[in-house]
Specification:
With 396 residues, the protein is α+β, with helices and mostly antiparallel strands. The protein has 3 domains: 2-81, no CATH class; 115-226, Beta Barrel (Butyryl-CoA Dehydrogenase, subunit A, domain 2); 230-382, Up-down Bundle (Butyryl-CoA Dehydrogenase, subunit A, domain 3), CATH 1.20.140.10. The chain has 11 helices and 11 strands. The chain has helices at 2-13, 29-42, 58-68, 74-78, 84-94, 97-108, 229-265, 277-305, 311-336, 347-357, 364-389, and strands at 22-23, 26-27, 114-117, 137-141, 144-155, 162-170, 178-184, 190-196, 207-218, 267-268, 271-272. Strands 3, 4, 5, 6, 7, 8 and 9 form a 7-stranded mixed beta sheet that branches. A two-stranded antiparallel sheet has the order 1-2. The longest helix has 37 residues, at 229-265. Belongs to the acyl-CoA dehydrogenase family. Residues 116-197 form the Acyl-CoA oxidase/dehydrogenase middle domain.
Length: 396
């Protein structure tokens, strides 16, 4: 399947990268539908989910998603892009049979896009990297939940047909906890106030600011159990972080290929660029970073496949891979020189997309802070265990 995806992306998708329907807020819905139709015909639409509805394990998903990422339009075409891929994963894990039939099925079939409404505006002290700061509120009213709040950086909200909304509960059995709800989009109570102009532009619908005013959701559209939203967020976010690593590994691989081709064709000072140590060494460092990133992805995938939630491992992978791929993209721009900062090649776009990756799904610094907290907890636990193992002093 990975080989079929690679052939499709290289032969069919890459020529679309210069399509005028790809704008500053992502590819248009017309372009998305056209690419998905081509993927459907080629048998590579939603390749990470099998015909019986089961999901490939994380190691096999890594093989497929890395190949889909060889073009920034590859995940869009193959239906492996964010946030849809993560939303499909969460629905498959937590959703009831009815919710899967109503919301998951059209996502898997590529008939609509989705959005995940969690992050909130920083200027309102809303939830960003710290979900516990969530300001969006839901309250039970008869057999409906009423939701009010503001969201920001909601990828794909503009034009989505399915939404997963996260809100903190007021009163009732979910008092103080977070809840998740499935909603049909568009809905007049969910309003896009603006689509942000961001450094990246690969994801359909861009990244939006959202106002939610008195949204009424039937109680049977709650995803999972009341008050368990933060737990479900981790079920989604750990593999989603890793999926980002997989897709952008493909993008970095392609950037490296373009830089290698340029360095072998271009001459300066009477020899090919690659024969200059400054250039050749950068490409060698790319090889090392690509392989180390691949190994890191596979290691984290194995942890998730073992049944672990993998929050620590996915944080480590997110930091290591995003930073390594960013170095690769930066070197590729440098190897291409003036051409690297133009849109004559896709390297400039790849650089912008990978740079954004270091921010979303948790900035590098937040993950390092979380890992440092674990180091401290482990140290305290080890000290306590050592004290318990020390025999009490004998009284004479």
């Amino acid at each position: 399947m990975a080989a079929r995806v690679e052939t499709f992306v290289r032969d069919v998708v890459i020529p679309y990268e210069k399509d005028m329907r790809r704008n500053s807020h992502g590819p248009s819905d017309e372009l998305v539908d056209e690419l998905k139709a081509l993927a459907r015909d080629a048998g590579v639409l939603t390749p990470h989910i099998l015909p019986d509805g089961s999901h490939l394990n994380q190691r096999d998903t890594a093989l497929v998603l890395r190949k889909s990422g060889l073009s920034i339009l590859g995940p869009v075409a193959c239906n492996t892009t964010a946030p849809d891929e993560g939303n499909m994963y969460l629905l498959g894990k937590v959703g009831s049979a009815d919710l899967k039939e109503r919301f998951l099925k059209p996502l898997v079939e590529g008939r609509m896009r989705s959005a995940f409404f969690m992050t909130e505006p920083a200027d309102e002290d809303g939830a960003g990297s710290d979900p516990s700061m969530m300001k969006t509120i839901c309250r039970l009213d008869g057999n409906h939940w009423v939701v009010n709040g503001r969201k920001k950086f909601i990828t794909g909200a503009d034009g989505a047909g399915v939404g997963i909304i996260m809100a903190k509960a007021e009163g009732g059995s979910a008092d103080g906890g977070a809840c998740m709800f499935m909603v049909d989009l568009p809905d007049p109570a969910i309003r896009t106030t603006r689509v942000l102009d961001t450094i990246d532009d690969a994801m359909p619908g861009g990244h939006a600011e959202i106002a939610i005013d008195n949204l009424r959701i039937p109680a049977d559209q709650m995803l999972g159990e009341p008050g368990e939203g933060f737990k479900y967020a981790q079920v989604r976010l750990s593999p989603a972080r890793l999926s980002h690593c997989m897709r952008w590994h493909g993008v970095a691989t392609r950037a490296h290929e373009i830089a290698v081709d340029y360095a072998n064709r271009r001459k300066a000072f009477s020899k090919q660029l690659i024969d200059h140590e400054g250039v050749g060494f950068m490409l060698a460092e790319n090889m090392i970073d690509l392989k180390q990133s691949e190994l890191m992805i596979d290691w984290c995938a194995d942890v998730l496949d073992s049944g672990s939630l993998g929050t620590v491992e996915s944080s480590m992978a997110k930091v290591a891979v995003s930073e390594a791929l960013s170095r690769i993209a930066d070197r590729c721009v440098q190897v291409l020189g003036g051409t690297g900062v133009t849109r004559d090649t896709m390297v400039e776009a790849f650089y912008r997309e990978i740079r954004a990756f270091r921010i979303y799904d948790g900035p590098t610094e937040v993950h390092k802070w979380s890992l440092a907290k674990k180091i401290k907890r482990d140290w305290k636990h080890a000290q306590g265990a050592a004290l318990e193992a020390t025999p009490a002093m004998e009284v004479r």
